[in-house]
Amino acid sequence: MKHCCNKMNFFIKESKLAIGYNAKFREYFIDLKNTDGKQLICFCPWCGSALPESLLDLWFDILEKQHNIDDPLHDRDKIPDDYKTDTWWKALN
Ligand SMILES: [Zn+2]
Fold first, then answer.
1. If you measure from the C-alpha of residue 44 to the centroid of ligand 1, how many angstroms do you get, rounded to a whole number?
2. DSSP secondary structure string, the chain?
């Protein structure tokens, strides 16, 4: 199973609710109304499981230290393909 429970799998796949998953940063979030903002969530609303920690800081860290990309949000062309999906953190284990 990709996520913590069937309901999480279902709603992320179906996009019927404002809940989402960013595989690149391993982040679960709820879209904020009337903005592009997102609110990260720490627990599954259905089964109550603790969701894995966001890897956002680690993503910036590794790109800076191992790939010499100081500002990946403005240097998107330099980001290796593995770092645009969940491939980079799945390879860590
Ligand atoms: Zn769940």
1. 5
2. --SSSHHHHHHHHHT-SSEEEETTTTEEEEEPTTSS-EEE-SB-TTT-PBPPPP-HHHHHHHHHHHH--S-TTT-GGGS-GGGGSSHHHHTT-
CA of 85 to the centre of ligand 1 (A): 22
What is this structure's pTM? Answer: 0.87
pLDDT in tens, the chain (93 residues): 789 999 999 999 998 899 999 999 999 999 999 999 999 999 999 999 999 999 999 999 999 999 999 999 999 999 999 999 999 999 996
Q: Domain locations in the chain?
A: 1-52, 56-90
* Residues around ligand 1, an ion, CB closer than 5 A: 4-5, 8, 44, 46-47, 49
Ligand 1 center to 29 CA (angstroms): 13
